[in-house]
């Protein structure tokens, strides 16, 4: 038999047991909730950390993108700037190339002009030769050549038009003095005329020394018949033919024979023999009981020295232009001009030559003065 404790409230013990159980359940639930909360907080922290990490990465990527955009913009601006500079340089080069092309064209034209002006004729026209002196040698037999020396210079033409005059002074300084004053007034008989003084600008000319040596020991023989014998036999026959004293031969030192050209060079022992033979021009040649005619000519060596092109301004001659003819005849006008320029008070001097043209045109010729120039 069971009994109840004194003072106990009926049903209270069952309630306390139930509450304890409920409390344990709530504690268990609270523990689970706290555990779940801790997991959620940990997950949140992990997520926050990931978010911050991706935010930093995103910011880094955005910074990189901004940097690349700025670099691309700067590169584009530099590209545009460099492109502009390159285009300007290209245009400048084009202008320079065009300028050089124009300059080359002008140079070519100038070269063509100079080539035309300085082109030499192949043949010098026949002209008179002035003999200056003859040098005698003590022992003529010692000299194997006759030597000739020619000093050749071309005359330069100058066109003189109506109302112009050329005046040549004896002294060079007179021309320089008169050129200081370009205009001069010439007193005529009943009038005056203004005359303009100019230097005489000449075109190009040339001068050279021509040395000529004529052998006194050697001759050329041409038109030698083509004989059906060896070359050595032909040489022997030539030697025998030209060693005869008649008509003017002598002892032969050497024979050079060329069958193809039908020519030979014969050298004699004594100087002077060649002179006697070349006088004939045609010389008899006996071979194989036949007499042929061969041509004989001197051996001449020619070479040039001091070949020079020259052009410039005449040192002693002036050109007078713009002359108004107020005299009765050309000679009177010429005399009055000469009188004016002879006077020292007018800056003149002794006149060597004057030529005035009142109508039409005349041509004057200048020659090279080896001592004082043109």
Automatic annotation (TrEMBL):
Q: What Gene3D superfamilies is this protein classified in?
A: 3.30.70.330
Instruction: Give a Gene Ontology cellular component term annotated to this protein.
Output: nucleus
- Return the annotated region ranges for Disordered: 1-28
Annotated compartments: Cytoplasm; Nucleus; Secreted
Nucleus found in the keyword field: yes
Residues spanning the membrane: none
InterPro entries, per this entry? Nmi/IFP35_dom (IPR009909), Nmi/IFP35_N (IPR009938), Nucleotide-bd_a/b_plait_sf (IPR012677)
* Entries under Pfam families matching the protein: IFP_35_N, NID
Coiled coil located at which positions? none
Q: Does the keyword Cytoplasm apply?
A: yes
The segment(s) forming the NID domain are 165-253, 264-352
Listed under GO biological process in this entry are:
innate immune response; regulation of innate immune response
* Keywords from the UniProt entry: Cytoplasm, Immunity, Innate immunity, Nucleus, Secreted
Enumerate the spans annotated as Nmi/IFP domain: 92-163
Write out the similarity annotation. Belongs to the NMI family.
**What's the name of the protein?**
N-myc-interactor isoform X1
Q: Which organism is it from?
A: Eublepharis macularius (Leopard gecko)
Q: Which gene encodes it?
A: NMI
């Amino acid at each position: 038999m069971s009994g109840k404790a004194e003072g106990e409230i009926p049903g209270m013990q069952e309630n306390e047991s139930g509450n304890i159980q409920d409390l344990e359940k709530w504690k268990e639930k609270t523990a689970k909730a706290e555990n779940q909360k801790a997991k959620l907080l940990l997950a949140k922290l992990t997520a926050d950390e990931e978010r911050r990490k991706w935010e930093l990465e995103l910011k880094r990527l955005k910074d990189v993108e901004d940097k690349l955009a700025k670099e691309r913009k700067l590169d584009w601006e530099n590209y545009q700037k460099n492109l502009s500079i390159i285009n300007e340089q290209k245009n400048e080069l084009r202008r320079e190339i065009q300028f050089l092309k124009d300059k080359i064209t002008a140079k070519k034209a100038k070269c063509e002009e100079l080539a035309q002006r300085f082109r030499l004729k192949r043949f010098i026209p026949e002209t008179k030769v002035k003999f200056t002196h003859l040098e005698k040698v003590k022992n003529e037999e010692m000299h194997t050549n006759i030597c000739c020396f020619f000093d050749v210079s071309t005359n330069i033409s100058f066109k003189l038009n109506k109302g112009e005059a050329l005046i040549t002074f004896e002294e060079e300084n007179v021309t320089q003095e008169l050129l200081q004053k370009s205009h001069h007034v010439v007193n005529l008989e009943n009038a005056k005329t203004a005359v303009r003084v100019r230097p005489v600008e000449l075109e190009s000319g040339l001068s050279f020394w021509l040395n000529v040596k004529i052998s006194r020991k050697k001759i050329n023989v041409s038109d030698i018949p083509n004989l059906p014998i060896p070359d050595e036999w032909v040489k022997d026959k030539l030697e025998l033919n030209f060693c005869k004293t008649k008509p003017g031969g002598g002892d032969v030192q050497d024979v050079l024979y060329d069958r193809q050209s039908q020519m030979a060079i014969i050298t004699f022992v004594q100087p002077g023999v060649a002179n006697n033979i070349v006088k004939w021009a045609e010389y008899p040649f006996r071979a194989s009981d036949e007499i042929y005619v061969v041509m004989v000519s001197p051996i001449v060596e020619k070479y040039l020295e001091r070949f020079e092109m020259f052009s410039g301004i005449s040192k002693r001659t002036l050109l007078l232009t713009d002359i108004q003819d107020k005299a009765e005849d050309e000679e009177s006008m010429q005399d009055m001009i000469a009188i004016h320029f002879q006077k020292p008070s007018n800056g003149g001097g002794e006149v060597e030559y004057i030529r005035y043209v009142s109508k039409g045109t005349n041509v004057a010729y200048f020659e090279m003065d080896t001592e004082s120039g043109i």
